[in-house]
Amino acid sequence: MRVENADSRTNVTENTRYTGTRETDSTNGLTSGQGGVAHDNAHVQNRNAGSTDKPNTTVSTTMSEMSVQRTRVIRASGAFTARSCGKTYHRKVGYEPRVAIEGEGPPVILVPGLDGTGLLFYRQTERLARGYRVVTFRLRDTADTMDTLVADLNAVIDELQHDERTDTSSPPIVIGESFGGALALSYALVHPRKVSRLVVLNSFPRFTPQHRLWLAHRLLQRVPWGMMRIVRHLTAFRMHSRHTGRDEIQKFHELMRHTTREGYLSRLSILRRYDVRHRLSMLDVPTLFLAADCDHLVPAVSQAELMASLAPHSAVRILKGHGHICLIAPDVDLSEILSEWVAPAPIEPDASDGRTP
User: Does the global pTM surpass 0.90?
Assistant: First the structure.
């Protein structure tokens, strides 16, 4: 197999490897999620905003007990709620993404998985916020198409241009896991100039075999929603990384109570129509495909290698010993992974100048 990397180099360590493969197989995939919700005390009417595409609506802000950084309201075809370090902004038009912004530095957008909550990035936001302006949000539960979700993500990114604390000198880094990886890929294909770098974790260019999606959709329609908590407990050993502690898994189960049947059914339906394999050659964004080698839900490694074989400017990094839900594991640090990926390759000394390394 011929191996290339987006930065024209290969970096292999004990636990990970970077590659941009040129030969591979195809197979299947699925997901998890992340985010933030606030408990508020005061309510203040703020301002009106709108246009033909974005109708005038009243925007209200909510102050929590914490000190806050000011951020503007997201404008989109839905009810948006934005929170910046404790301050929440509501836009009541039908969809509330509960946008949360933390930290200072270059912007990073975290796109949640199939759960759509935006809550399961909690370990990563804390670490990323030390060097980045980190944005999390909730997916629309009533979306009929991937295009709708792409438009929602575009509204979140556009609004960052109006946040006085966000570094707008370059577009944001967009990171998506599983279903969120599919959404992030779809977004970067439509808006390549609005993404500086793309990270896709445990995802796929098409979910196969399709009958698994059909079966999951039918079961979710028929099984009492409360039973899903039991199902998650029974399958936890196959979904989580082996290093993830009992307390973190318990927290995962608590956060998953914020999911909805409607959201799952919506996103499963979208995946049945999702296929970007034929478009990946047009992906004009530096991309890192992250893949857990113990993922029992998605054949993450083969899918990452397939996508890297089709997408220019791409690299693969294997997360050894990790399962599908790996972002709550103690030894996965997206901030560190980004730093290693973005760091310039060391300059090799020229043998002709007579100097030794």
Answer: no
